[in-house]
Amino acid sequence: MLPTINLAELQSSLIAFAPELVLCGGIIILLLLRMLPSLERVHLGYFSLFIVVAALVVSWIEWVNGEYDTRPVFAGMVTADALTVYMRLLLLGFTALVVVLTLLTNLPEREDSCDFHVLLLGGTLGMLLMCSATHLLMVYIAVEMASLPSYALAGFLKLRRQSSEAALKYVVYGGAASGVMLYGISLLAGRFGTGYLPEVAAGFAVAMQQGPVDAALLVGLLMIVIGLAFKLSAVPFHFWCPDVFEGAAAEVAGFLSVASKGAAVALTGRFTLALVGGLPNEWATYDMWQRVALYLGPTLALLAAITTTFGNLAAYAQTNLKRLLAYSTIAHAGYMLMALATLTREGLDAALFYLIAYLFMNLGAFAVVAFLRDLAGTEDLSGYSGMIQRAPVLTVTLAVFLLSLVGLPPLMGYMVKFQIFAALWKAYQDFNNIGLLVLLVIGLLNTVISLFYYVRVLKVMILDPAPGEAGPVRAPPGQIIFVTLLAAVVTVGIVAWDPLALHGSGRAVSQFRPIKPSGQPPTASAPAAAVTAR
Amino acid sequence: MNEIDLWIMTGVIFTPAVFALLLLLPIFGKGREELMRYTALVGTFITLLLTILLFIDFLGMMDQFLPTGHVEKTHLGYRMDQAAVQDAEARKPYDRDLTARVRWIERFNIDYALGVDGISMALLLLTALLSFLALIASWNIEHNLKGYLILYLILETGMLGTFLALDFFLFYIFWEVMLLPMYFLIGIWGGPRREYAAIKFFLYTLLGSVFILIAILGFYFKDLTTFEEHLKNEMTQAKAAADAAQAGPNDPLRRQAEAAELEWKAVHALVAREKTSAEAPVNTFDIFLLHKLGRESSKLLARVDEAERNFAKALEATGTDAADEVRQAREAVDAARAAVEKNKDWLFSRDFQMVMFLLLFIGFAIKVPMVPFHTWLPDAHVEAPTPISMILAGVLLKMGGYGILRIAYPICPLAAYELAWYLGLFGVISIVYGAFAAMAQTDFKKLVAYSSVSHMGYVILGIAVWTTLDRSSFWSWGMNGAMYQMLAHGISSAGMFFMVGVIYDRAHHRDLNRFGGLNNAMPVYSALSAVIFFAALGLPGLCGFVGEFFTILGTWNFSMVFAVLAALTVVITAAYILWTLQRVYLGSNPAYEGYPDINARELLVAIPLVILAVVMGVYPSLILYWMEPSVTGLVRSLASIFGS
User: Fold this and answer.
1) Is A79:A70 a contact under the CB 8 Å cutoff?
2) Is residue B182, in this structure, part of any structural domain at all?
3) Phi and psi at residue B102, in whole multiples of 5°?
């Protein structure tokens, strides 16, 4: 049964939905602009940049004025809470940077610019919806809406076989994964008669209280997790990722690696935290958490451990730089999943915080790859030997991004990784769960393993001699400035740790309560009473 | 916040980094190599001057307190406490106490906390001096000079920051900052197997750092909320004891009570600052707060042990568990256990300490390096260019010793106490193994590298020889010996690597068996080398002797076997060094005739090292005067934990 909505609610909903509306309007105008013959000579990238920045400004105003709350929007299909607004800022800011990057590399030719930017903005819109969805149906629609433009973007290099192959693989995997997810959603929604997340969570709580858990519920939950894992490119649902990244243009790969994963992280966090929390009594919430965490925690933890380890090990064997970065993004999805596997507010906080640094360092790495592709004509690692002599600035900035991906202080990658590890330790200590400590150790060892392949890239580019005939390559100043600014952010970002964590990710998760209440638990019957009272 | 010492210390750390940024300016283009060199040299020189300025301040502070017998006021922990109390009372801070604390990351209670005492001051001076000298030794680097200088200066910032940081998080960041420049400095400007050596160094140290990071997290998540209460109880008891004994103002009991009061006030101020809400836990990265936690935890645990021993004794003496003294003893056991249970939020339990200590110790021992974690060192040293070998041996190895002294031992005293024998054993193994391995080498640099393993073994041994309070003067000898050995090794090993570098520049090989007769061609060089090598050998009158002698003296009372082994190894050391001198400098070899003697620039590096080697050997009090109070203070505070 779908909810109904009255006019006043519609009005407030539209206001809360403003940044998405700006994007929608922009997309429509972009499509219409193409009809005008007089605009054929204009590159539409600038217009698309304008739209994204406009949406960004609207979100920024919402964020600064604190115009967000947990009230349902559009009768509970989506919400515009702090988490949503935070993700809007992150994703729109990131998209703006990607648009700038495509302008710098001139990726879509002028005549293709409309298609490309419509797809880019459409994908962003879907990802924004993923971050705000509070209804299972909306979750599905948002995931699809984010995926479809991504498929097309992956195949955008029309004349390259690899690109088309990548797109096809992406579609096939994506279709299968979303089918599984839809089936899982129908199991849950069918069982509880609603898809509204808080109601699903309440239903789950009652079901959990009533003893042996319904197998259909667990299967449904697992299927939804599989759908999310596909978007996160968690092992073993990652097979599309290296192929797509290798086949697609580096700019698109950079976009997918951050935006798509970021949205998936936010969605996974919202879904899992909604499922475990939200009961009125805090001890009841804790009780609920313990029951759900029994199933969901180990699943996510296992997924995280395998994803990180596999991603890092597989990256070692790669010779194509984009493929290597693809495995690196898989590993990073694993780190974020580690934080989410704690199923706590701190965990989500750490994962959201991670996205900030991940955005800059990953975009930077892909940007350098894109620039070097144009300059050196290859994406193969062997073609980059001695690059320090040929393109010093690009090489040094790439070194900064890669070392930040390793997580070496004082770079930004370290501070976000630290927060994840801190969240893991805190959860281990709070819940006395040795599994989380093991996960922490796996994460730390992975940091050491990952050093191998990141440094191997640097070794080739910096330590190995340049081939004799290769002269210096000259990057346009715009590109130099772009990567230098990104590298500067990654380098001095640690100074901004406090504001980012306290007023950024910390604010985004402030609506969720800490899982473990302080003090002593009440008598044994109280949690059950609190749940049934609902 | 208008603190002069904050700015001096910050200046010491970041001057090299600022000069590294300066070198990025476009005026340092191609063809301006000489200008770049001089700019970098000025950077290290200013750093050296600032360090000396800091040293003068430090001496002033020592002179203020030492003659009046207030040694404890020179201790860094005391000054940090005082500063915390004064901050809380919003009194004007005493800006010459050589400590500074500025809030950095509120979310994790991380401070930009710096401070100096005798231990760190000595190492700071060594670092600043060697960085300056090694830069002069870098004059013949041609390839990619700008990159070299920038990385070199960043490395210096990392080293100085590590010795000054008093916040564990800040310490870790500086510790890690050193890794990367080192990787590139070895990997780009090193010898033929440089890439292998560089990545090996990187991996070993990163693995060690990961261990340290786990420990950092473990300590951080202890909840300090009730610690303040515990300290208050301790203070009340100390005061009561002092009152009962009617102690005068200079009586040790009264002083203890006063110290306990200051500590409580400081912790009270720090906890109050971090406490955001009633339920929120209080966590810390403050190294000296962690010292207090470790000490109090170990005291509580030691009390349980002692009560249990007394109980067992009483039970044995009376043969029945009904007697009065047995009952009392049992109550004492229960009380001691209850105290542990009551403070479990912040207490570092025995198992926790063991695990954390091992993590920290391995992390630092890799850097020292201690056998069996030493295998990165011969590769790194051999492949690194001469100035970087000097820095590696002279400064980086000392980081490990410093970390053990400053962090691993005081934070986990119980574990250190219980593992003391094994640590000493590994120290001795390093000494003996390193010496024999050095003897077997034919590569000149490798020989020096293994001699470093051997000499750093004395540092581990000297630190490890834990004794009880009444005999703490022996441990104090060991610890002072270890510190002195670090300084002496910093001078002599840097000197040896430089001397090897000088001859390598001329002969382009390092094969010991192909040298010979250098004395004929290069008399000045040979004479200076001889002094440096004799200093490393531990010849009385030169710097190496003092540290080794102190260490062995301290060890004698810990384990005679260890002392004998350590002393006997001196003979092995003498053997390989004399044999080396003979093979390289004596005899005659026509291949080396006509080699130019050491030039002015090289003399500029060698002479200060030689002078220091002699002065430190002849007049150790010059350093011990201001270093010893800090070291002995550390020893006494640790030794007092486990009674007499």
Assistant:
1) yes
2) no
3) -130, 135
Nearest to A463 among B177, B187, B220 (CB): B187
Task: Tell me the count of A-B CB pairs closer than 8 A.
Answer: 73
Evaluate whether residue B244 is within a structural domain: yes
Which of the four pLDDT bands, split at 50, 70 and 90, describes residue B93? Answer: low
Helix (H, G, I), strand (E, B) or coil at A85: helix
For CA atoms B12, B17, B18, B23, the dihedral sign is positive
Cα angle B279, B285, B286 (rounded to 5 degrees) comes to 110
Q: Does residue B379 fall inside a structural domain?
A: no
DSSP E strand stretches across A160-264 = none
CB nearest to B206's CB, from A410, A448, A494: A448
Q: Which chain B residues are closer than 8 Å to A497 by Cβ?
A: 105, 107
Per-residue DSSP letters for B377-412? HHHHHHHS-HHHHHHIIIIIHHHHHHHIIIIIHHHS
Rounded to two decimals, the ipTM of the complex is 0.91
Q: How many CB atoms lie within 10 A of CB A112?
A: 13
In DSSP terms, A320 is beta-bridged to A380
Tens digit of each residue's pLDDT (9 = 90 or more) over B3-42: 788 899 999 999 999 999 999 888 888 788 899 999 999 9
Are B308 and B428 in the same domain?
A: no
- Give the integer Cα–Cα distance in Å for A130 and A78: 9
CB A103 within 8 A of CB A30: no
Do B331 and B459 sit in the same domain of this protein? no
From A471's Cα to the closest Cα of chain B, the distance in A is 16
Share of chain B above pLDDT 70, in %: 99
- Whether residue B65 lies inside any domain: the answer is yes
Of the candidates B27, B46, B45, B41, the one whose C-alpha atom is nearest the C-alpha of residue B149 is B41
Amino acid at position B566, single letter: A
Write the residue in B173, B199, B203 that is nearest to A410 by C-beta: B173
Chain centroid, CA B112 distance in Å: 20
Place of tokens 């920051």: B161
Query: Which of B351, B384, B418 corresponds to the end of one domain?
Result: B351
The whole-chain average pLDDT of chain A stands at 88
Q: The tokens 């959201």 sit on which residue? A: A352
**Does B479 lie in the same domain as B541?**
yes
- Domain boundary (B351, B383, B413) is at B351
| Record: contact B206-A462, CB cut-off 8 A | no
Query: What is the pLDDT at residue A496?
Result: 84
Residues of the domain holding B564: 397-642
Question: Among residues B598, B225, B151, B164, which one has the least CA distance to residue B387?
Answer: B151
A529–B contact, CB cutoff 8 A: no
Torsion over CA: A444, A445, A448, A449 (sign): negative
Counting the structural domains of chain B, the total is 3
| Distance (Å, whole) CA A475 – CA A473 | 6
pLDDT above 90: residue B564: yes
CB B382 within 8 A of CB B446: yes
The helix/strand/coil state of A78 is: strand
Do B149 and B87 sit in the same domain of this protein? yes
Q: Write out the residues of chain B at the interface with chain A, using a CB-CB cutoff of 8 A.
A: 104-108, 147, 172-173, 176-177, 179-180, 183-184, 187-188, 194-195, 198-199, 202-203, 206-207, 210, 213-214, 217-218, 220-221, 279
Other C-beta atoms lying within 10 Å of the C-beta of residue A509: 25
- Whole-number Å distance between alpha carbons of B642 and B583: 51
* Partners of B100 in the β-ladder: B114
Which run of H or E residues covers position B105? Answer: strand B99-105
What is the per-residue DSSP string for B126-155? HHHHHHHHHHHHGGG--TTHHHHHHHHHHH
Local structure of B165: helix, strand or coil? strand
H or E stretch covering B100: strand B99-105
A396: nearest CA partner in chain B:
B147
- B107 contacts on A by Cβ (under 8 Å): 497-498, 501-502, 506
